[in-house]
């Protein structure tokens, strides 16, 4: 995606509503994952750091500050994202990032392996270092911007460190906080931010954007039916659909997203068997994928089952309408609702799974029980 299209069309009304003359010290942007919040926030950070105050539109993309930002070298921009999300910051050179080096060094001294349990979270060391640096003041004499994504990935100790800074903000320091699940963010943090809602696009606009993005990728061709299937499976989130399509096209068996996509397909094929599901085999063949991704697929499938059992239509898997209708005929509704409750509880701790395989076995065994009395 080129620089001129960083902001998705469905987020442009939100962008135009921003008043750069009266920006609070903390903004919490919430909304569904995969709808373009991150790209929006990066452009927002750039606009806040732009030094051309007379430009008709910010960022101006011409001043020295904008140039530094584009090369990932702006000294007043700090991003706190987990290791699994750093690839989203395309311009940043994390190999030379002293904050990251210090964090890794600390973990190694504590005897943690390179495959650290914190790789999906923002470490307390990185958070503290970022907060401590705020006392120095901005390098350019203007704003200093801290972007944190996803906010719900903060560990409790990191969240408390952030809270202290929000309670006593440094001058000209602006926090841009992003959350896919705002219900997982500390209420004390939410109360100190101005909340902005990033909307999901309507299906027509989202599909049009997705097709346009795919047309710019050489060698990636897909018929409209398959494209719509992936779009629906991703809950109408265009960026998630695009990443899924690219990963499927590249077929990198070592890529985490590719692994998760393949495992999710097998998982859904197993769940389509209803009472005949071999839950032990399904858990065995899928447990190495990202647990959160698998839970999302299971939850979407269960949501469609609920919808059909109550006379509605499937939202995520309309392509499998006949299968879902067949399964719905033998559903025991109270057990289906209990299974949904278990999925919801599991999602609260999806980034800290004690044992993926054991949890999947338990969930799929319970899924088998919802069919029949």
| CATH arch. level architecture of the largest domain | 3-Layer(aba) Sandwich
Instruction: State the fourth-level CATH superfamily of the largest domain.
Output: P-loop containing nucleotide triphosphate hydrolases
The order of strands across the largest sheet is: 2-3-4-1-5
Shape type: globular
**Rounded Rg:** 22 Å
CATH fold type of the largest domain: Rossmann fold
Could you name the ranges where pLDDT drops below 50 across 5 or more consecutive residues? Answer: 92-118
CATH first level of the largest domain: Alpha Beta
The first-to-last residue Cα distance is: 52 Å
Q: Helix segment count?
A: 16
TL;DR?
The protein is of the alpha/beta class.
What would you note in describing this structure?
It is a single chain. By secondary structure, the chain is of the alpha/beta class. It has helices at residues 12-16, 37-49, 64-70, 98-109, 124-133, 156-167, 187-190, 203-215, 224-233, 238-250, 256-271, 279-286, 291-309, 321-328, 333-347, 356-368, and strands at residues 26-30, 77-80, 144-148, 173-179, 194-197.
Key attributes of the depicted protein:
about 375 residues; alpha/beta; Rossmann fold; Zinc Finger, Delta Prime, domain 3; 3 domains; 5-stranded parallel β-sheet
Topology overview:
Layout: H1 12-16, E1 26-30, H2 37-49, H3 64-70, E2 77-80, H4 98-109, H5 124-133, E3 144-148, H6 156-167, E4 173-179, H7 187-190, E5 194-197, H8 203-215, H9 224-233, H10 238-250, H11 256-271, H12 279-286, H13 291-309, H14 321-328, H15 333-347, H16 356-368
Parallel strand pairs: 1-4, 1-5, 2-3, 3-4
Helix pairs in contact: 4-5, 5-6, 8-10, 9-10, 11-12, 11-13, 12-16, 13-14, 13-15, 15-16
């Amino acid at each position: 995606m080129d620089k001129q299209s960083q902001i998705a069309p469905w987020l442009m009304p939100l962008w135009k509503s921003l008043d750069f003359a009266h920006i609070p010290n903390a903004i919490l942007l919430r909304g569904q994952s995969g709808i373009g919040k991150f790209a929006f926030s990066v452009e927002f950070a750039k606009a806040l750091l732009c030094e051309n105050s007379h430009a008709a539109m910010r960022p101006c993309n011409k001043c020295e500050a904008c140039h530094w930002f584009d090369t990932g070298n702006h000294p007043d921009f700090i991003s706190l994202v987990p290791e699994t999300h750093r690839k989203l910051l395309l311009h940043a050179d994390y190999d030379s990032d002293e904050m990251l080096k210090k964090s890794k060094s600390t973990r190694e001294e504590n005897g943690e392996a390179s495959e650290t349990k914190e790789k999906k979270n923002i470490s307390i060391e990185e958070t503290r270092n970022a907060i401590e640096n705020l006392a120095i003041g901005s390098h350019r004499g203007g704003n200093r911007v801290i972007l944190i994504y996803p906010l719900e990935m903060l560990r409790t100790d990191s969240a408390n460190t952030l809270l202290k800074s929000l309670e006593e903000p440094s001058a000209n320091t602006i926090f841009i906080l992003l959350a896919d699940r705002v219900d997982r963010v500390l209420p004390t943090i939410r109360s100190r931010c101005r909340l902005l809602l990033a909307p999901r696009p309507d299906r027509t606009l989202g599909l049009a954007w997705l097709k346009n993005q795919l047309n710019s990728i050489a060698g990636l061709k897909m018929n409209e039916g398959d494209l719509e299937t992936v779009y629906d499976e991703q809950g109408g989130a265009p960026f998630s659909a695009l990443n899924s399509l690219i990963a499927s096209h590249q077929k990198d068996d070592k890529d985490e997203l590719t692994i998760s996509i393949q495992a999710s397909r097998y998982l859904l094929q197993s769940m389509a068997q209803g009472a005949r599901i071999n839950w032990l085999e399904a858990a065995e063949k899928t447990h190495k994928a990202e647990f959160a991704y698998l839970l999302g697929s299971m939850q979407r499938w269960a949501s469609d089952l609920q919808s059909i059992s109550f006379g509605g239509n499937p939202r995520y898997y309309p392509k499998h309408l006949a299968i879902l209708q067949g399964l719905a005929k033998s559903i025991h509704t109270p057990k289906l609702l209990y299974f949904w409750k278990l999925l919801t509880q599991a999602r609260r701790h999806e980034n800290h799974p004690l044992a993926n395989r054991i949890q999947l076995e338990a969930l799929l065994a319970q899924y088998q029980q919802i069919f029949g009395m």
